[in-house]
């Protein structure tokens, strides 16, 4: 007796493999992955920590280098610079540095009396000139200041909370003129300026820093936490004390800069990604996978036959419904497309003639033209109005053409007459840009086509050429018949277009709309309609363009009554005169 079918035996073996894997091997894999995650996090933290220390040291060194230039200026000047001279020099040196208004510079004489004091925007901002440093510093610090005047080194002093509303770190250095000390400079920079570059590293968002001086006194970007008065209410949101963290949580690196000991610590922030949720997800995923496998196996065993029968019936019904829906969708898409195209073309093709009408009316109202010119413009108004009426009739024909109703009204006519009518309608628009038309059409050239549709094609191509021509440019229209085909070419010397625009020029569904050289607006529908009208005559439209060198459109129509091969099958040399 067989207790299991081949399919059931395979499911049982797979289930046993999952249980064995989860029991013996998965915990080992997860422990290994968690340990690797911890090592990776430690390496990343060390890298960020080193970059932070290096960034802080570079900021301090850059500030000291700037102060070195000030000392050279004061020492090497022929006479001792005045406060105004020194302030102007500092402002000139700071114009390319990122210290903004956070610098206060004081000059103190050998008796510790303030002689100069200024910021970038104020003179004596703390009312210190004439007062003594002894009034604000204790004896130990006075002794350090005396030592400053005995060497050529830079000395950083303990940061202080300034009344100006910032945490200032003084950099002091001796000023020696003619071999004798004349005092010292105390340059105070906002500590925020030195620390901010650390936070510009995008990787620090996952870490919290602790900054300290003399191994115990904390400071952040807004204040030094030494118990002294703070003259503003701002808080540094990244200060570890505000985040409920202890100093023992940090890994530290110490460095000494210009006589001041700094300690920079780093610790992962609360939002630091952890490997624990990932491992838990794996465990729960294994459990859910196991349960789902068992449930699915039972359901497949019980309902396999029934589901197959129901599924076969449902599939047949769905297939029938899908076929019917596809037919309805195709019909609906065609109707919606017709509606959208019709409304878009109405808005586009009526715009050109109406624009010409408004231009002519504006010229007539200005009373700056002669009676003869007025008569000519009134005739042009009449022609433009007739053109609009013709366009509306043409749109109806285009709509009927797209609904598979034969609406072409072909007739024999002189092509030059149609070109002259279109040229006259476009003259006002061309005149505004100083664009000239050059027409080379044989007087006896006969064409059999829909007069209105072909007129729309000519107007659109010539209007497009004017739109992208430069001021004072030229648009050339030539036409000829060769063999079994009629050819019409419209050329301009305008801006041309890149190949990617040419490839989607006649596709209404792609963005090929560009503004003209005088920022003339358009919708891209004119060329689309022209292409459809030409194709309705079993013709083709070709475009050649080089960016910066103009564009050429070639319309090719078969001569009715003659045996014609497709123009696309002809050699290129037969498509031109």
UniProtKB/TrEMBL annotation:
InterPro entries: HATPase_C_sf (IPR036890), HATPase_dom (IPR003594), His_kinase_dom (IPR005467), HisK_dim/P_dom (IPR003661), HisK_dim/P_sf (IPR036097), Sig_transdc_His_kin-like_C (IPR004358). Residues 345-561 form the Histidine kinase domain. The chain crosses the membrane at residues 12-30, 281-302. Its EC number is 2.7.13.3. Residues 308-342 form a coiled coil. The keyword Acetylation does not apply. Keywords: Coiled coil, Kinase, Membrane, Phosphoprotein, Transferase, Transmembrane, Transmembrane helix. The keyword Transferase applies. One of its GO terms (molecular function) is phosphorelay sensor kinase activity. It catalyses: ATP + protein L-histidine = ADP + protein N-phospho-L-histidine. PANTHER family: HYBRID SIGNAL TRANSDUCTION HISTIDINE KINASE C (PTHR43547:SF2), TWO-COMPONENT HISTIDINE KINASE (PTHR43547). This is histidine kinase. It comes from Marinoscillum furvescens DSM 4134.
């Amino acid at each position: 007796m067989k207790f299991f079918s081949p399919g059931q035996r395979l499911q049982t073996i797979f289930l046993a493999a999952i249980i064995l894997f989860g029991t013996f091997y998965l915990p080992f894999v997860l422990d290994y992955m968690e340990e690797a995650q911890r090592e990776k996090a430690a390496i990343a933290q060390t890298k960020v920590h080193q970059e932070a220390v290096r960034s802080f040291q570079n900021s301090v060194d850059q500030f000291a280098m700037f102060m070195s230039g000030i000392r050279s200026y004061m020492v090497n000047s022929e006479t001792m610079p005045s406060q105004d001279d020194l302030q102007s020099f500092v402002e000139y040196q700071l114009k390319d540095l990122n210290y903004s208004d956070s610098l206060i510079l004081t000059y103190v004489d050998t008796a510790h009396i303030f002689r100069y004091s200024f910021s970038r925007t104020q003179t004596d901002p703390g009312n210190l000139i004439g007062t003594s440093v002894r009034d604000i510093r204790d004896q130990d610090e006075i002794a350090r200041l005396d030592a400053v005047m005995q060497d050529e080194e830079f000395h950083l002093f303990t940061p202080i909370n300034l009344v100006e509303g910032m945490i200032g770190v003084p950099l002091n250095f001796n000023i020696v003129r003619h071999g004798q000390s004349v005092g010292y400079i105390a340059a105070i920079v906002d500590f925020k300026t030195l620390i901010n570059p650390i936070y510009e590293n995008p990787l620090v968002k996952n870490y919290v820093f602790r900054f300290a001086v003399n191994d115990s006194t904390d400071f952040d970007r807004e204040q030094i936490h030494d118990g002294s008065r703070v003259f503003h209410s701002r808080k540094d949101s990244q200060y570890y004390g505000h985040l409920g963290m202890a100093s023992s949580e940090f890994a530290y690196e110490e460095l000494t800069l210009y006589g001041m000991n700094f300690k920079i610590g780093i610790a992962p922030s609360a939002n630091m990604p952890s490997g624990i949720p990932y491992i838990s997800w794996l465990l729960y995923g294994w459990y859910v996978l196991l349960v789902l496998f068992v449930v699915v196996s039972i359901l497949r065993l019980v309902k396999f036959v029934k589901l197959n029968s129901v599924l076969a019936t449902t599939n047949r019904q769905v297939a029938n419904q899908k076929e019917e829906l596809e037919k309805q969708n195709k019909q609906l898409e065609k109707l919606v497309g017709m509606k959208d195209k019709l409304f878009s073309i109405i808005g586009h093709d009526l715009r050109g003639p109406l624009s010409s009408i408004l231009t002519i009316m504006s010229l007539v109202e200005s009373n700056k033209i002669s009676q003869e010119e007025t008569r000519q413009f009134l005739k042009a108004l009449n022609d433009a109005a007739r053109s609009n009426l013709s366009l509306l009739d043409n749109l109806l024909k285009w709509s009927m053409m797209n609904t598979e109703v034969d609406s072409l009204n072909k007739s024999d006519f002189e092509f030059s007459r149609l070109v002259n009518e279109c040229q006259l309608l476009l003259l006002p628009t061309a005149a505004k840009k100083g664009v000239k038309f050059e027409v080379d059409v044989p007087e006896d050239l006969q064409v059999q086509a829909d007069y209105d549709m072909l007129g729309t094609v000519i107007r659109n191509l010539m209007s497009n050429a004017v739109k992208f021509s430069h001021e004072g440019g030229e648009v050339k229209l030539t036409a000829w018949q060769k063999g079994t085909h009629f050819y019409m070419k419209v050329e301009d010397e305008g801006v041309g277009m890149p190949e990617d625009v040419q490839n989607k020029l006649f596709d209404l569904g792609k963005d090929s709309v560009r503004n003209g050289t005088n920022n003339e607006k358009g919708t891209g529908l004119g060329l689309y309609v022209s292409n459809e009208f030409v194709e309705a005559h079993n013709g083709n439209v070709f475009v050649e363009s080089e960016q910066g060198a103009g564009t050429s459109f070639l319309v090719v129509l078969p001569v009715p009554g003659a045996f014609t091969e497709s123009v696309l099958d002809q050699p290129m040399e037969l498509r031109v005169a």
